[in-house]
Design a protein that fits this description.
The complex is a heterodimer of chains A (about 575) and B (about 375).
Chain A (H helix, E strand, L loop, with lengths): L22 H28 L15 H8 L3 H32 L5 H13 L2 H12 L4 H9 L10 H25 L3 H9 L4 H30 L2 H7 L7 H11 L5 H27 L23 H27 L10 H4 L3 H8 L2 H32 L6 H9 L6 H14 L11 H25 L3 H8 L4 H12 L1 H17 L15 H10 L3 H25 L7
Chain B lengths: L3 E10 L2 E11 L4 E5 L6 H9 L6 E6 L2 E5 L4 E2 L7 E4 L11 H11 L4 H14 L15 H13 L5 E5 L7 H18 L3 E5 L2 H7 L2 E6 L2 E6 L1 H6 L4 H6 L4 E9 L6 E6 L4 E5 L9 E6 L5 E2 L9 E13 L4 E7 L2 E7 L7 E7 L4 E3 L9
Parallel strand pairs in B: 3-9, 3-10, 7-8, 8-9
Antiparallel strand pairs in B: 1-2, 1-4, 4-5, 5-6, 10-11, 12-13, 12-15, 13-14, 15-21, 16-20, 17-18, 17-20, 18-19
The chains are: A mainly alpha (about 575), B alpha+beta (about 375).
Organism (chain A): Bradyrhizobium centrolobii
Family (chain A): Belongs to the binding-protein-dependent transport system permease family.
InterPro entries (chain A): MetI-like, MetI-like_sf
């Protein structure tokens, strides 16, 4: 490496780069302001309305606290609270049991087809609970395929979806993947030598499982339990499809019936119930934070990427495999399969041979009414454009919060994660009020842009979850190098950080696309003729009893999401969930 | 190119003092190394010069430009300083080719396209990487990446050059070659350079002056030879080179000839000449470099030094010579010999002059 003495650098007098003064500050403050406004938009009107004696768009309002008293004296409200609590608790119990069992069985044993079962087990998380409900209805509903089969053999089916345990079963299956994912990721960072040490010390499979593996999973189980309890409180689809006809009301359906479905909504009451729900969820989200903070006691050192040795099931391998196959078929494959099949038949019954009823008429009649193709088109627009807008916003928030010296970056981080504590129904009602309250926004009220705003606000934390890990792993030296060479923060972000972040931003877009595409809770409070999305038309068709149409629409949704998930995983290597 | 002046620099992280009262003046074109163990504050000092860390108080000035002044609340952002910083991780942007990496600072300075091309080529030629312009960083070896990182910094001719352990990610052979190369380059460029390392060999070989740091404070500033031969305290003596420490008590205070008689804990006595003047009964530490000690023959007269008995505790071949671990009254010391020895006990000759006497007590390195 000797140097040629002639090579040297000619002296040069470069002007130092002159970045636009204050540009960084303007971008950072602007983005922070936009985030705060977007997140406060639905919350402040709800709080405001809950303390008014009449609708917030009327004139002559008086501040009052009487709404709270009125709510608790409403007939049956106590029962609503009780139902909500029972439903959420049962849902949590079922999802945690199923999720933990699946994580151990599919993730940690030598059971045949464990990986395939693991993949199928995750499927409910890609679909909306609404679609899963319709799938279960097709199989286990009063005229469902298996129900009829059971009736023809025995005297009736032993299940009833129109009950709290029935609803909780569907919700449990739909939420079990969350518990599964948390247990799996906890297991994958656990040092496998902990288990090996127990075995070397003479512990058998069962003892190692119960004394080492499961206790190490406890934080994951506890954290996802709080998460699932929260989801159980916020869930609208299942209580709406199965609870309402049976007269079982929970808090979400209470809000829906009094806010959207009612001819003369009592806004004071609705807003107050929403505030109540918001407060409870706030406490639960705080509890999630506490649980995560307290997990240090269970932190396992090492964390190497070695795969732990699977537990040997020996003689139980095949029996457990058959059992798992039955479970997966009964809860995931059959409901989804039957729903898809129903879309291509005029009816689905064990008494009628399937070849007699095959038809495309469901899709034909779906295309006949303009509202259905329009809702599909709107869903595409909302998911694509909205997903892009939301991704841009999430990307900017992430680099401001994690990669800038912005003075308020810690509070901004807190605010950006706050929508986790805002249930979809509350966000829906809140945006509805916000657009009614603020003059000048009325024009947007019947367009899909109100949906884009609401979805974006509601799912900013989801997007951050997709982007933040990669940003945290990226060496800060990359930005520091650019800064010392004379690039200001925004140039550094544009030329270095954001290009490097592209894989995470793509993953974020795909996750948000899927989430927006299946979202219905927020939408049903906000849609208007012309701005329907698949979620809302699904519910409309359901209310009209058009099961064939519902199946056809659900098929479109399942297909689009299926293609997205498969393509993202196959071509982009994007890791979706876990 | 300019003079760097750091005055009364402090940096606190909450109650932790990362650097405390650091004062350094680096002349124009001087090469100064910040040397110390991890956590000594050398990287924090470098970050403060580059503008990546904001100090708590003090002043930093380069040429006539004030980078930081705690009293006047001046803090220039890194992009306004025109420093050149080469990172330990090199921080080459993985989504850009070598050319795009090196041209980036020129584009920021709105240099014309033709000039850009010429200067990138010059700069890459300087580090002998001109043939790799179209490669991506991941297609280069560690040593090549390091040179591109240097070219990217030199291309815009920064006021001062900051090097953060640039050789530490190279393997031992490559590190030797890169060090020689860097020494040649620095002589020719004559840039004011601050070099951060924990490797004393690099520091001794490259620097005009070395700043030894410990626990956020400066222990000693001096030329390499001065630091090696006259360490200011036992920390510096311990950190630079291999040093054997002996603890003892003064039993004969220095007279007019400056000779102090020290008794080790096992009663053996050593005579040492020093400009320090401890009093009778003081606890003292004295240090010898391994090359200053030798084994004494059975009838060796203790001329020009002292002879002490030492127990052999370990004995290992280190290639070409033997390393012998000894215990002298509870002090662990290490010497190197040409021949193997089977003795349980050895006699050690210590010189009268050359050893260093410290009046503060230390345990030295535990081997």
């Amino acid at each position: 490496m000797s140097l040629d003495a002639s090579t040297t650098l000619a002296p040069a007098a470069d002007a130092l780069p002159k970045p636009l003064p204050g540009r960084d500050t303007v971008i950072q403050y602007g983005m922070a302001l936009l985030t705060v406004v977007l997140i406060a938009a639905p919350l402040l009107p709800v709080l405001y309305q809950s303390m008014l004696d009449r609708a917030l768009y009327d004139s002559g309002q008086q501040f009052t606290l009487s709404n709270f008293g009125r709510l608790f004296h409403t007939d049956g409200f106590g029962l609503v609270i009780w139902n909500t609590f029972v439903f959420a608790t049962l849902t949590t119990l079922i999802s945690q049991t199923l999720g933990t069992l699946a994580a151990v069985l599919f993730g940690r044993t030598d059971m045949p087809f464990a990986r395939l079962f693991g993949e199928l087990f995750l499927w409910p998380i890609y679909l909306s609970a609404l679609v899963l409900s319709f799938g279960w209805y097709t199989i286990y509903g009063p005229a469902g395929y298996l129900t009829l089969l059971m009736q023809s053999i025995f005297d009736g089916a032993p299940w009833n979806l129109y009950s709290l345990p029935g609803m909780a079963m569907i919700a449990g299956v739909s939420q079990a993947p969350v518990a599964y994912i948390y247990c799996m990721s906890s297991a994958s960072i656990t040092d496998p030598t902990l288990e090996e040490a127990a075995r070397v010390a003479g512990a058998g499979t069962l003892r190692t499982l119960s004394r080492i593996t499961l206790p190490l999973l406890l934080p994951a189980i506890a954290y996802s339990a709080v998460l699932n309890f929260t989801v159980g409180l916020e869930l609208l689809a299942i209580p709406l499809v199965f609870g309402d006809p049976a007269g079982i009301t929970v808090l979400t359906t209470f809000l829906y019936n009094n806010g959207v479905a009612s001819a003369r909504p009592d806004h004071g009451l609705v807003a107050t119930a929403a505030v109540l729900m918001f407060a409870v969820v706030c406490v639960l989200v705080w509890l999630q934070g506490r649980l995560l903070g307290n997990t240090r006691r269970f932190v396992t050192l090492g964390g190497k990427a070695t795969r732990p040795r699977p537990f040997r099931l020996n003689r139980l391998r095949w029996p457990l495999c058959v059992f798992s196959a039955i479970y997966i078929t009964a809860t995931v494959v059959m409901p989804i399969g039957a729903l898809l099949l129903r879309a291509f038949t005029s009816l689905l019954s064990p008494m009628v041979p399937i070849t007699d009823v095959l038809t495309f008429s469901n899709f034909a009649s779906m295309l006949e009414y303009p509202v259905y193709p329009r809702s599909i088109w709107n869903s595409f627009i909302v998911s694509t454009l909205g997903g892009a807008v939301a991704t841009a916003m999430v990307g900017l928030i992430a680099i401001i919060v994690l990669r800038s010296d912005f003075r308020w970056r810690a509070p901004l981080h807190y605010v950006a994660l706050f929508p986790r504590a805002v249930p979809g129904v509350v966000a829906g009602i809140g945006f509805f009020y916000a657009f009614a309250l603020v003059p000048g926004l009325g024009g947007l009220r019947n367009t899909i842009w109100i949906l884009v705003a609401a979805f974006t606000m509601h799912f900013i934390p989801v997007g951050l979850g997709a982007v933040a890990p990669m940003l945290l792993q990226m060496s800060p030296d990359f930005d520091r190098a650019a800064r010392t060479q004379g690039a200001d923060w925004w140039t550094t972000s544009r030329r270095i950080v954001l290009p490097l972040l592209r894989p995470a931003l793509v993953a974020c877009f795909i996750i948000l696309f899927i989430t927006f595409f299946k979202e219905y809770t927020t939408a049903i409070f906000l849609f208007a003729p012309g701005s329907e999305v698949i979620g809302t038309t699904l519910l409309q068709a359901w209310t009209q009893g058009e099961v064939g149409l519902v199946s056809a629409l659900a098929t479109v949704q399942v297909m689009v999401i299926g293609i997205c998930v498969t393509a993202a995983r196959a071509f982009l290597g994007v890791k979706l969930y876990g | 190119m300019a003079e760097l002046l750091i005055e009364n620099l402090h940096k606190r992280f909450g109650p932790v003092k990362a650097i405390e009262d650091v004062n350094i003046r680096v002349a124009d074109g001087e090469f100064v190394t910040l040397l110390g163990p991890s956590g000594c504050g050398k990287s924090t000092t470098l970050g403060a010069i580059a503008g990546l860390d904001q100090p708590t108080s003090g002043r930093i000035r380069v040429g006539n430009k004030t980078y930081f002044d705690g009293d006047k609340a001046i803090f220039l952002p890194p992009e306004a300083r025109n420093c050149g910083l080469v990172f330990q991780s090199y921080a080459l942007w993985p989504h850009m080719t070598v050319y795009d990496n090196v041209v980036f600072p020129l584009k920021l300075r709105r240099v014309s396209t033709a000039d850009c091309k010429r200067r990138v080529e010059e700069s890459l030629a300087l580090v002998e990487m001109e043939r790799f312009q179209d490669r991506y960083p991941h297609q280069l070896s560690g040593g090549q990446q390091q040179r591109v990182a240097l070219a990217r910094t030199l291309v815009y001719q920064p006021e001062i050059l900051l090097l953060d352990e640039p050789l530490s990610n190279l393997d031992a052979k490559l590190r030797d070659r890169a060090r020689t190369w860097l020494a040649e380059l620095r002589t020719r460029l004559g840039l004011t350079t601050i070099y951060v390392t924990h490797d004393q060999v690099e520091a001794l070989a490259l620097s005009d002056r070395i700043v030894v740091m410990n626990g956020g404070r400066i222990s000693q500033i001096g030329a390499p030879q001065e630091i090696y031969t006259r360490p200011a305290d036992s920390f510096v003596a311990d950190f630079i080179g291999t040093t054997n420490f002996l603890n003892g008590e003064v039993v004969g205070a220095p007279g007019g000839d400056g000779q102090t008689l020290v008794s080790l804990s096992d009663g053996q006595r050593v005579l040492i000449k020093s400009d320090k003047r401890p009093s009778l009964g003081d606890k003292v530490t004295f240090a010898y470099r391994p090359e200053q000690m030798r084994l004494a023959t059975p009838n060796d007269p203790a001329i020009g030094g002292s002879i002490i008995e030492a127990d052999v505790v370990s004995h290992s071949y280190v290639g070409g010579r033997w390393q012998v671990g000894l215990n002298v009254g509870g002090n662990q010391i290490r010497i190197e010999t040409q021949d193997a020895t089977t003795d349980r006990q050895l006699r050690l000759w210590l010189p009268l002059t050359g050893g260093i006497l410290f009046t503060e007590r230390t345990h030295g390195k535990s081997h």
